[in-house]
Amino acid sequence: MNKPSQPVPDDEVDDGLGPIPSEEEMEAWLIRNRDAINESIIEADREFAEGKAEPWDTDEMLGDLRAKFAKLRKG
After folding, report:
1. Sign of CA dihedral 38, 39, 41, 46
2. Alpha-carbon Rg for the chain in angstroms
3. Which of 30, 52, 31 is nearest to 43 (CA)?
4. Where is this region: Disordered (predicted)?
5. DSSP string, 43-73
6. CB within 8 A of 37, min separation 6: which ones?
7. Is the Cα dihedral 62, 68, 71, 75 positive or negative?
8. Residue 10: pLDDT band by 50, 70, 90 thresholds?
9. pTM recorded for the entire structure
10. Would you call 55 helix, strand, or coil by DSSP?
11. Which segments within the chain are labelled E, that is strand?
C-alpha cells in the first residue's frame, strides 16, 4: 500500500466542497446573499422565541466531536 511520505495539506484534500474561496469571493457571496442570510437569522430567532428550537448543548457537541476525532485517528 503506497502512502504519501508527507501529510497532504488541508487545501489539497478533496472534501467534495471544491476549492476554498478567496476573501474577495467570500465577501462577494455575502453581499449577494445578505437578504437571505438576514431572513434566515430572523426566522431562527422567531422559531427560538416560539419554543420550536432548543439551545445547543456545548458538552454534547464537544462529545460528538471527540468521538469523531477518535474514530478518524483510528482510521
Report:
1. positive
2. 19
3. 52
4. 1-23
5. HHHHHHHTT-S----HHHHHHHHHHHHHHHH
6. 30
7. negative
8. low
9. 0.51
10. coil
11. none
Q: Look at residue 44 and give its three-state secondary structure.
A: helix
Question: Which residue do the cell numbers 488541508 mark?
Answer: 10
Supply the DSSP symbol for 16: S
Q: At residue 31, what are phi and psi to the nearest 5 degrees?
A: -65, -45
List phi, psi (to 5°) of 3.
Answer: -120, 150
Separation CA 68–CA 75 (nearest Å)? 11
For residue 15, the SS3 value is coil
Q: Are 34 and 41 in contact (CB under 8 A)?
A: no
